[in-house]
Amino acid sequence: MQTSTTPRFSRSAIAIAVGVLLVIGVATVSLTGHAEKSAPAAPAATPVTVASVIERSVTEWDDFSGRVEAIERVEIRPRISGTIDAVHFQDGQLVKKGALLFTIDPRPYKAELARAEAARAGAQARLTLSKTELDRTRRLLEDRAVAQRELDQRENALHEADANLKAADAAVLTARLNLQYTEITAPVSGRVSRAEITVGNLVATGPTAPTLTTLVSVSPVYVNFEVDEPTYIRYAGNGTVGNSGVNRVPVSIGLTSEEGYPRQGHVKSFDNRIDNSSGTIRVRAVFANEDGTLTPGMYARVRTGDSNAKNALLIDDKAVGTDQDKKFVMVVGADNKAVYRPVTLGPMVEGLRVVRSGLKLDERIVVNGLQRIRPNDTVAPEVVKMDARVASANTGKSAGQAASSAVN
């Protein structure tokens, strides 16, 4: 008797197939759910502060370093030889023009003047005698009592006597000048240094004459500083380099002990050449110095400006980033996307940075949060005004947050 096993085998195969399908289904559902669960969400917009580029009429300033120089500096030297009799000033004293500084022993020069005056009197007497003798000889010649030769001799004697009198006059003048030179006075008003030669010392004239003291004028004073070539070219383009324009270039200075640039002056002159090694040109400015604070050799912070105010685009300096040797800002468009924009900058004016190229009026730029975004990032802008007060406030806020973080 034959038995069939086919139905039994079919049921087993079906059971296995159903099991495999169930396992595959469960695995598929599991993988699908896991994939849906781990899918990345869209990035959130980065919060930043933005402000619109503004335009103002400004005077652009450039900063330099300079040194104070006296307009007049005199080395006081003796014009005659002699012994110092007196010193008539205190070290560092302010003196007026014509004030007596030193006295050289005048007695030898008084004697020389007396001798010269006596010699002049003798020359005058000889001239008078020569005139008398010439007149007498002329009358005698008319009576043919003397020869023509004698008349010629008398005329020659008169000319010689006249020349001797002129020489005597010159000797008297020289003696008087030498006597005047025994009193050494200040040629200009200013401040004297210390006395290098004291009472009782012998001084001489000539190339080896010693410096008795130095004298510098006090007010006004020069401030000399070096200007780079691009700045000089800008001034030249504005017509302020020529003689008619230099006085229109405003200059301000501040000393190391002063805040800002409280002292006002103007450019006196530009040098006639640019230094090949440094690429700069020397500029000389003039400042009043009524209080006498500005001392020759003193360091000064110098700020110069274009005398012609002009419109300029201004932004907060914190909005500027550095990309190697370039400067850039992030412009935020209507779609709130950050766009990289290279810019050319000018100086700081009224707390804001001048933009020479790269931006347009009213364009929105990131002024706070620049370090948190990259080009083409979506941002959530908070709009503020672009002015110096906002810039200062933001700076102060950032500083305060940094200080708070440091304390915590």
UniProtKB/TrEMBL annotation:
Coarse class of the protein's main subcellular location: other
A UniProt-annotated Pfam family: RND-MFP_C
Family stated for the protein in its record: Belongs to the membrane fusion protein (MFP) (TC 8.A.1) family.
The protein, known as: Multidrug efflux system membrane fusion protein
Taxonomic placement: Bacteria, Pseudomonadati, Pseudomonadota, Betaproteobacteria, Burkholderiales
NCBIfam families: RND_mfp (TIGR01730)
Residue stretches spanning the membrane: 12-31
Multidrug resistance protein MdtA-like beta-barrel domain boundaries: 220-303
Keywords associated with the record: Coiled coil, Membrane, Transmembrane, Transmembrane helix
Domain Multidrug resistance protein MdtA-like C-terminal permuted SH3: 311-372
Subcellular compartments: Cell envelope
Coiled coil: 144-171
GO annotations of cellular component type: cell envelope; plasma membrane
